[in-house]
Amino acid sequence: MTALPPGSTIGILGGGQLGRMIASAAAQLGYRTHVLAPDRESVAAQTASSLTRADYHNRVVLADFAAQCDVVTYEFENIAAEPVEWLAERVPVHPSPVSLRVAQDRLAEKAFVADLGGTPARWAAVGTRAALDAAIEQIGTPAVLKTTRMGYDGKGQARLGTPADADEAWAAVGGAAVLEAFVTFSHEFSIVLVRGADGTMVSYPPPWNEHADGILARSTVPAPPPIAAHWTEAAALTGRIADALNHVGVLTCEFFATAEGPVFNEMAPRVHNSGHWTIEGSVTSQFENHVRAICGLPLGDTGLTGAGVTMENLIGDEVDRWPDLLAEAGAHVHLYGKREVRAGRKMGHVTRVTRR
Ligand code: AMP
């Protein structure tokens, strides 16, 4: 791939905060960005050069979008794969729709990762209420029932403490689902890896990710020793996944740190909330490195800028703390420009870098 010169246009499918931060990084490198999203409020469009507000399935719109973009990327994985595949026949799309298809389907994802030597939690496919009973027999409890598709931030999930919870879990999740054994872990962490168009890869030191109600609350780097011990193995697996997908751009894999080694949880074929600390905490942010990768540029240094970094999400009305946070020396406040505060909604984040 020859490098796209500055001034070229990057198309972004999706209008959320990830698109917003990709657009900012793209602007820094002299690129234009064009957001395509159906949402009434697109916070990505606030920092992008242009916006098309339309359904992803509108072929006339897609053809026009393809004609205006030099490369296209996506900022979330719950977009239908068909329009992305259609676009990929007309304009380079990175990461490719193959990454999207695998990451969208928990069953496909687990099988793919297990084939590459990774260890997901023991799982069984569940399509009917009767199949859930069979899966409980096989996997045991405690367990987690998850929708196969369209889950995020712990949504579309139900925990089963005992087999007696099956009815309630099925009522909550139902449909195409996967039952996973409940993993006993000491910590959660992620590998945020970037793969260039030429196959070059770099990855960031793994953050320790703490969740509240299934939503990321905080990421801390460097991670504590139980995570550091799994770093090499988890990064190598993420690299094998990226190579096998011929992935171009950021790929994030989430893991549980267990006594038996890193257990794979899920992957995201995109920049990730657990990588937001890289904006100030790393020499090159995940957003800039994503732009570099999809534009065919050399990847940037992923080293730390300080002794340590924490990133705290501002969820729901936590965003009301912004005046105090702004008054705090050294706190880097990011607000996503969302008009409406809702419980569980990611409204912003704050990053603190400890000096060396
Ligand atoms: P997910 O959306 O699949 O990443 O799940 C959201 C959160 O639920 C994870 O970050 C974990 O804290 C927890 N979780 C999910 N799956 C499991 C599991 N199999 N065992 C234990 N905890 C889990």
UniProtKB/TrEMBL annotation:
InterPro entries: ATP-grasp, ATP-grasp_carboxylate-amine, ATP_grasp_subdomain_1, PreATP-grasp_dom_sf, PurK, PurK_C, PurT/PurK_preATP-grasp, Rudment_hybrid_motif. PROSITE patterns: ATP_GRASP. This is N5-carboxyaminoimidazole ribonucleotide synthase. NCBIfam families: PRK06019.1-2 (NF004676), PRK06019.1-5 (NF004679), purK (TIGR01161). Its EC number is 6.3.4.18. GO terms for biological process: 'de novo' IMP biosynthetic process. Residues 110-295 form the ATP-grasp domain. One of its GO terms (molecular function) is phosphoribosylaminoimidazole carboxylase activity. Catalyzes the ATP-dependent conversion of 5-aminoimidazole ribonucleotide (AIR) and HCO(3)(-) to N5-carboxyaminoimidazole ribonucleotide (N5-CAIR). Keywords: ATP-binding, Ligase, Nucleotide-binding, Purine biosynthesis. Homodimer. Pfam families: ATP-grasp (PF02222), PurK_C (PF17769), RS_preATP-grasp-like (PF22660). Belongs to the PurK/PurT family. One of its GO terms (cellular component) is cytosol. It comes from Sphingomonas mucosissima. It catalyses: 5-amino-1-(5-phospho-beta-D-ribosyl)imidazole + hydrogencarbonate + ATP = 5-carboxyamino-1-(5-phospho-D-ribosyl)imidazole + ADP + phosphate + 2 H(+). Pathway: Purine metabolism; IMP biosynthesis via de novo pathway; 5-amino-1-(5-phospho-D-ribosyl)imidazole-4-carboxylate from 5-amino-1-(5-phospho-D-ribosyl)imidazole (N5-CAIR route): step 1/2. The gene is purK. ATP binds at residues 106, 146, 151-157, 180-183, 188, 211, 265-266. PANTHER family: PHOSPHORIBOSYLAMINOIMIDAZOLE CARBOXYLASE, PURINE BIOSYNTHESIS PROTEIN 6/7, PUR6/7.
